[in-house]
Structures are given as structure tokens and as C-alpha cells.
């Protein structure tokens, strides 16, 4: 096979700091190559350099040869002709990659018309056909819809349709499944690889998940500190990683386990929720219509005991986060009640590492916020150490921290006032695999050591199986199945549980 | 970390700074007494005797421009400040309380917004009687809904953020959250709006003075200088040019400060993050 894409000695600098430092990479025509690395290793920058879409304050040098042409020497009109037509791109966050004011059919048609002279009607028809191919059947999901009327997975499918519409020979996909729940992500990833195989295109699949790379890609290249440190056939790389960076990534694919010493299931509950029901008012469809109400949670019973981890799993919009907010008292339930043991406090770590810390506050002030009196000297530093952070970070502000560091700070804040209940609402889903594993391990230890009652909301079924004492499966606002993870995942009864288990690849008999 | 300020912010600050300097200097020194009439030196064109000429009563225009800066900044600043001090708490309360309180504040805002502001300021000044204090009240009242609306919408966005949820879990009430989390985070946007409202307030004050409802004689005021120049503009154009230029420079400077500040504080240009 000849090389479709050949990168030689690519460097990208911000001022004097090299972000990519002499990167070499080759991708053959029709090959699926995974580019794997921790956050900040330069994966996304590599994709943007190929398309020459780097922000102007970054300087790139080196050779990026696509189909014999050096992209680094092409002028802007030539690059515009290339982008979309010969090289397609799928981004991590489909909501920001799509124009919120444009119908999805028009967005795909726009890509087609930007490169091919074609009457509008024909482009629309081609777009509708393309959307059908990515699983957005016009009979169910009309091309007339706007992005906000689609689910996350549907949006990513629409973005893929736009990227693939002109049959490009190379597709760059930058963490296209990271923002999606596990089941949807697995569907989207397999759709992307199926399309690429069908068209004989090359795919550069960027991810931080070595296990996902092993499932999807022919070869995997591992990046660390702006360089490719190891390249090998994907499965072999996962089985026998050579470079330390690869070994770290491989270890991160191992499932978090917990000693489960303190999980006394007969201890008195610290939090008891019965019949939790919550309705949300949605936007009126016309000025005179009654505003429709959507039931986000219905009749949810939940008991949290000291030293136990209770997991809530389910697809997006199944009502998990609503239950979390009701447990925390951030919203009043429309039915049912939450009873917290006298004197007990509930704290939480939320999903978005960027929204959960006040951008103007220092780390020390953030962590001490739940304290009722000024904390004794050294208390903040001790809290930082407990969550595995350097006490020297106390004076920093959130924008100086990585996503994983931010979530640890949020965890330190949650623990600071000595809560009895900790709610982790998808707290690790925005993190890379290594940070995710470390934080989940920490939460397991906290339950065991401090006797914390944890409500763990997660898409990560493998982690749930390793950590939880009890699992509640939610679907359309209800708890449809519950039980200890070993039993529940071995013999799922409800269709929702079965779909989750199948998507997570847990139905095999590999030991968790 | 220090980022380079945009050019419009630099120019705006220079112009505004010059006007503020004029106001300060005028307290200690003016080329002549701005109030002293000299009928023997009426309508002198700009020259060595009077840098910007003299008016129909022989008063020194340069001295009046300097002294006028004081009343322009004083009345404009007090009016914009009044709007800020009334509007921001209203907006914060509307966002924090939601529901009926929010509706009440916003409908009251709509009511004030619905009136042609300057016209009503004229009416108010006419009712309360002309004078600097009443001009401040009239202009300040019409600045209030602007600040209320801006702080409410910025605060609403923040109330849905997770760090506010964390503060609620930490046991803080709405007032503490509004003061510790919301207000500091909207301060940048408010500073931008303050600069713009200040320029509008100074222009409004000049308008009120022009029709005789602002600062009362003999205190010099740019607006009234323009008003008095009306009949003489053919004969003595400097009487209109200099106060007009003073108003223009002040309003332009503050508008540039507002625009430049907005660009400077734009979170998309913030350093760090990912």
C-alpha cells in the first residue's frame, strides 16, 4: 500500500515552547490508524495541523504529504478545495461543530455545494441520502430538524454525514465518541469505521482509550509530549506495550477494583429516598398551548448506606442526573421525599470540569468553601494531598489546571466538610482514561476508608462493576432493574440493561 | 498575566484621562476666572488674549471648557453610578429569586424602557425644577433598567453553573452566592457597560443643559455653552466648536474604553485553559 498521508518532522510551537516536537506518522490508503495519548500530548493539534487549521499564534513546520502534495506549502484556496472534499473532519463536540441555526439537511448540502456545482434540490436529495446512510432515516429524523432537536448521538451522526458526504479519501476524527455515553459512543464508532471501510477511505481516529483503539484500528500510534513514541498493530500494542507512555495507557484500560471491606449492607442508611418524582416544564409549542411537562424521574426509591457505593446507570436522559439533583436537595421533588440522617451532609462532584469551579477563585478558597468556620492552617493542603494533588496548587486558579486536576479540586471541596454522602454525577466522563481511573480508585478508597456513602452516576459499566455494591438501571425516569453488579450484568433482564451491557462489551466472559 | 490592551482601549483611556485631567486642573487653575465677565472683551476670536476666544459676556471660553469638564464628569458619573447602584442589585435579585420577583423587576424595567428616555428626563427635570441634582436623578433613573437587564441575564447564565450548585451544597444562601460568586464574575461586563452608560449620561446631561435643565448658571456647562452659542454661531463659530469638540472627545473616549474593555475581557481571548 502507498502512503496516503505522510507526516515528517512536524513541529508546532507556541512562542518558544514546542507543543509538537518532530512528529512522524504514516497512514496508508484505506487504513484505520488510531492516534492515542493522554490529554495534552498533542493529538488534536496534529489533526488541526494536517488541515492547516491551527490558531494563528501557533507556528507549524515540517512536511505533511497528502497524496503526494505537501499541505504545508499549499495556499489557502487550494486548502479550501481540499478540506471537506478530500479530507473530512469529525470533531469531539457535535453541538459546537454544527451551526445551531441551520437545518441538518442544509448543513450536509452546504458541504456538498461548497465543492461541487450542483442545483440546490439535488444537493438536498444527496444530503438526505447521506443522512439515511448514517442512520438518520428521513422518516424518523427529518433533515429539516435543527441540531438542538437531536440527541448527542444523532448530532454526531449528522456531523459524520457532513464529513463523509463528498467521499473524502482521508477522514480525521478527533475523539468523536468522548462526549457521548458508552452505548451511543460504541454505535457511532462502529458506524464511522463501517463507512470508512465501505468507501475505502483512510481514517485517523484520535482517542485517549487504548482499548477502543484496539477494537477499531488496524494500527495504533501512541503520542507522548508531542511525539509518536510507539507504533504497532493495535491488538499487539495493547497486549504488549513497550514504551512507558503506552504502558500507562494500557494500565488505564484495566478495570478499577475495590477491596470492598467496609461495605456493610446492614448498616443504618444515611440517606433514604422514596418515590422520587420530578417533572420539567418544557417550552410551549404555541403561545396559547399549555406548556407540556416531561417526567424526568418517576417513583425512584434509593437507599445509601455508609461505606457502600450505589451506582446509577442508564442511557443519556434516562433521569440519572435529575435523581442526583433531587438527592442533593438542589431541586425539590414533585413527589416522594429524601431523608438524610440527622447531622449528615451531602456533597457532590459534577460532570463538567470547566463549570464546577468559580474561575475567579483560588484553589484554596474553592476547597474551603463548604467550611463553616475559617479552616485551620494546613487543612487545605491536607485536603489537596488526600486527592493526590500537590499542595503547591493551593494558590492557583482553575484555568491553570488540567481537567483531571479540576475534578480532584472539586472532589477535595466535596470532602472538605466531612460529608456522609458523596454524589458523583458523571464526574469522570469528561476526563482522559488515566485521570478517570485515578479518581475512581480514590472514590473506592474513600468509601472503604472513610465510610462514605457514594452515589456513583456513570456511563462506565466496567468501572461500575469494579466499584459498586448495588447498581440501579434507569430508563425513561424509572428504575427498571437493580441488584449487585455481578448478578445484574451476568444476567440482565430488562431490555435497557441488556442494551447497556451489550454496548459496554461486558456480555463476554472476560473477568472484570 | 498581562495581555496587550487593544488599541481602542488605549486611545479611549488617553482621551478620557485627558478630560478627567482637565476637570482636576480646573479645580486649582484656569487661564482666567470662568465666571468673570468683561464686557470690553466680548466675542474675541481665539488668539493670544484668550486661547479659545471669549463669549458674548466676555468670559474666557477655554476657562469655561475646563470648568465644564468638572460638571460633565460629575453629573454624568453620578447619574451612571446611580443607575449602577440601583440596577445591579435589582438584576441580581431578579436572577437569584426567579419567578414572580423576576417578572416584577423585568416588567418594571420594560415600563421605564418604553418611555423615550431623554424626553422623560426633560419632563422630570421640569417637574422637579432644573438643577444638577435633578439631572442626576432623571438620567440615573433611565440608566437603571440597562444595568438591571445586563446583570440579570449574565447572572442567570451563572446560576445554572455547577460551581453555584456546589456553593448551595456548601450551605450558602442566595445573597452570599450573589455577592461571592455572581457579582465578581459579571463585574467585567458591568465595567464595559458602565463606560458606555457614562458616555450616554454625559451626552444626556449636555442635552439637558442645552435646553437649560442641567447645571444652573453661572456654573459653566458644555451643553449650555452650545445652547447660548446658537444665535451667534455665524459670527463667533468658536463658541460652538469648542464645547462641541469637548463633548465629542469625552463621549468618543468613553465609548472606545467600553469597546476596548469588552474586547480585552472577552473570555475567548483569555489566556490559559484548553
Features of the shown structure:
heterodimer, A: 512 residues, alpha/beta, Rossmann fold, 3 domains, six-stranded mixed beta sheet, 19 strands, 34% helix, 25% strand, disordered C terminus, B: 274 residues, mainly alpha, MetI-like fold
Walkthrough of the structure:
The complex is a heterodimer of chains A (512) and B (274). The two termini of chain A are 39 Å apart. The longest helix of chain A has 18 residues. Chain A contains 18 helices and 19 strands. Chain A has 512 residues and is α/β, with parallel strands linked by helices.
What is the subunit organization of this protein? heterodimer
Tell me the CATH topology of chain B: MetI-like fold
* Rg on CA atoms of chain A, Å: 24 Å
* CATH uppermost class of chain B: Mainly Alpha
Could you tell me the strand content of chain A as a percent range? 25-35%
Look at the structure and name the CATH superfamily of chain B: MetI-like
Distance, first to last CA of chain B: 16 Å
Count of domains of chain B: 1
CATH-defined fold name of the largest domain in chain A: Rossmann fold
Strand segment tally of chain B: 0
| CATH architecture term of the largest domain in chain A | 3-Layer(aba) Sandwich
How many angstroms separate the termini of chain A? Answer: 39 Å
Q: How large a portion of the residues of chain B is in β-strands, by DSSP E?
A: under 5%
Describe the largest sheet of chain A.
6 strands, mixed
Helix content of chain B: over 70%
Order of adjacent strands in the largest pleated sheet of chain A: 6-7-8-3-9-10
The CATH level-2 architecture of chain B is identified as: Orthogonal Bundle
Shape descriptor of chain B reads elongated
Give the structural class of chain B.
mainly alpha
Task: Calculate Rg of chain B over CA atoms.
Answer: 22 Å
Low-confidence stretches of chain A are: 508-512
What is this structure, in a nutshell?
With 512 residues, chain A is of the alpha/beta class. Chain A is built from 18 helices and 19 strands.
Amino acid at each position: 500500500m502507498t502512503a496516503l498521508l505522510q507526516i515528517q518532522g512536524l513541529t508546532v510551537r507556541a512562542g518558544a515552547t514546542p507543543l509538537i516536537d518532530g512528529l512522524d506518522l504514516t497512514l496508508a490508503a484505506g487504513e484505520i490508524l488510531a492516534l492515542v495519548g493522554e490529554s495534552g500530548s498533542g493529538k488534536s493539534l496534529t489533526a488541526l495541523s494536517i488541515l492547516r487549521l491551527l490558531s494563528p499564534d501557533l507556528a507549524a513546520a515540517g512536511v505533511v504529504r497528502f497524496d503526494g502534495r505537501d499541505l504545508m506549502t499549499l495556499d489557502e484556496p487550494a486548502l479550501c478545495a481540499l478540506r471537506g472534499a478530500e479530507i473530512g473532519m469529525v470533531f469531539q463536540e457535535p453541538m459546537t461543530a454544527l451551526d445551531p441555526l441551520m437545518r441538518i439537511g442544509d448543513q450536509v448540502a452546504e458541504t456538498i455545494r461548497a465543492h461541487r456545482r450542483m442545483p440546490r434540490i439535488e444537493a438536498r436529495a444527496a444530503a438526505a441520502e447521506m443522512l439515511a446512510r448514517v442512520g438518520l432515516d428521513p422518516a424518523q429524523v427529518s433533515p429539516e430538524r435543527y441540531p438542538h432537536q437531536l440527541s448527542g448521538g444523532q448530532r454526531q451522526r449528522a456531523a459524520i454525514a457532513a464529513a463523509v458526504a463528498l467521499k473524502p479519501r482521508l477522514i480525521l476524527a478527533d475523539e468523536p465518541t468522548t462526549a457521548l455515553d458508552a452505548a451511543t459512543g460504541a454505535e457511532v464508532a462502529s458506524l464511522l469505521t463501517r463507512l470508512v471501510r465501505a468507501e475505502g477511505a483512510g481514517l485517523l481516529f484520535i482517542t485517549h482509550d487504548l482499548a477502543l483503539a484496539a477494537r477499531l484500528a488496524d494500527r495504533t500510534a501512541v503520542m507522548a509530549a508531542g511525539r509518536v513514541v510507539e507504533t504497532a498493530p493495535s491488538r499487539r500494542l495493547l497486549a504488549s506495550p513497550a514504551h512507558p507512555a503506552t504502558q500507562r495507557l494500557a494500565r488505564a484500560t484495566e478495570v478499577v477494583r475495590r477491596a470492598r471491606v467496609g461495605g456493610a449492607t446492614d448498616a443504618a442508611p444515611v440517606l433514604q429516598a422514596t418515590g422520587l418524582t420530578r417533572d420539567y416544564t418544557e417550552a410551549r409549542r404555541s403561545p396559547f398551548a399549555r406548556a407540556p411537562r416531561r417526567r424526568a424521574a418517576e417513583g425512584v426509591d434509593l437507599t445509601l448506606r455508609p461505606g457502600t457505593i450505589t451506582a446509577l446507570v442508564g442511557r443519556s436522559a434516562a433521569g440519572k442526573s435529575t435523581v442526583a439533583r433531587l438527592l442533593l436537595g438542589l431541586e425539590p421533588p414533585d413527589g416522594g421525599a429524601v431523608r438524610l440522617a440527622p447531622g449528615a451532609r451531602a456533597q457532590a462532584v459534577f460532570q463538567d470540569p470547566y463549570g464546577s469551579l468559580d474561575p475567579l477563585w483560588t484553589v484554596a478558597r474553592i476547597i474551603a468553601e463548604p467550611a463553616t468556620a475559617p479552616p485551620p492552617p494546613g487543612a487545605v493542603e491536607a485536603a489537596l494531598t488526600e486527592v493526590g494533588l500537590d499542595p503547591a496548587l493551593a494558590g492557583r486558579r482553575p484555568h491553570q489546571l488540567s481537567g483531571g486536576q479540576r475534578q480532584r479540586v472539586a472532589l477535595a471541596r466535596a470532602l472538605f466538610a466531612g460529608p456522609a454522602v458523596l454524589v458523583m454525577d458523571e464526574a469522570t466522563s469528561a476526563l482522559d482514561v488515566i485521570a478517570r481511573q485515578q479518581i475512581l480508585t480514590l472514590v473506592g478508597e474513600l468509601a472503604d476508608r472513610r465510610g462514605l456513602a457514594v452515589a456513583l452516576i456513570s456511563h462506565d459499566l466496567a468501572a461500575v462493576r469494579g466499584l459498586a455494591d448495588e447498581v440501579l438501571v434507569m430508563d425513561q425516569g424509572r428504575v427498571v432493574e437493580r441488584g449487585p453488579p455481578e448478578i445484574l450484568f451476568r444476567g440482565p433482564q430488562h431490555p435497557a440493561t441488556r442494551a447497556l451491557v451489550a454496548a459496554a462489551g461486558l456480555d463476554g466472559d472476560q473477568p472484570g | 498575566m498581562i495581555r496587550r490592551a487593544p488599541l481602542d482601549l488605549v486611545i479611549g483611556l488617553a482621551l478620557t484621562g485627558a478630560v478627567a485631567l482637565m476637570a482636576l486642573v480646573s479645580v486649582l487653575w484656569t487661564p482666567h476666572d470662568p465666571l468673570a465677565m468683561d464686557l470690553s472683551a466680548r466675542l474675541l476670536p481665539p488668539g493670544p488674549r484668550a486661547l479659545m476666544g471669549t463669549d458674548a459676556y466676555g468670559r474666557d471660553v477655554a476657562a469655561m471648557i475646563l470648568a465644564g469638564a468638572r460638571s460633565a464628569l460629575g453629573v454624568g458619573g453620578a447619574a451612571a453610578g446611580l443607575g449602577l447602584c440601583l440596577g445591579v442589585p435589582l438584576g441580581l435579585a431578579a436572577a437569584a429569586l426567579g419567578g414572580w420577583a423576576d417578572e416584577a423587576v423585568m416588567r418594571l424595567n420594560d415600563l421605564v424602557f418604553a418611555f423615550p428616555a431623554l424626553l422623560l428626563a426633560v419632563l422630570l427635570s421640569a417637574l422637579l425644577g432644573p438643577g444638577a441634582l435633578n439631572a442626576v436623578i432623571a438620567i440615573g433613573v433611565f440608566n437603571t433598567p440597562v444595568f438591571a437587564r445586563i446583570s440579570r441575564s449574565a447572572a442567570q447564565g451563572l446560576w445554572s453553573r455547577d460551581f453555584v450548585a456546589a456553593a448551595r451544597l456548601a450551605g450558602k444562601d442566595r445573597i452570599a452566592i450573589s455577592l461571592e460568586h455572581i457579582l465578581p464574575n459579571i463585574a467585567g461586563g458591568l465595567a464595559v457597560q458602565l463606560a458606555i452608560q457614562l458616555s450616554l449620561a454625559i451626552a444626556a446631561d449636555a442635552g439637558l443643559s442645552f435646553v437649560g435643565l442641567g447645571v444652573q448658571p453661572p456654573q459653566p456647562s458644555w451643553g449650555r455653552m452650545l445652547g447660548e452659542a446658537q444665535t451667534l454661531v455665524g459670527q463667533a463659530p468658536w463658541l460652538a466648536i469648542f464645547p462641541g469638540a469637548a463633548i465629542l472627545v469625552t463621549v468618543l473616549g468613553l465609548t472606545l474604553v467600553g469597546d476596548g474593555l469588552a474586547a480585552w475581557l472577552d473570555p475567548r481571548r483569555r489566556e490559559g485553559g484548553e
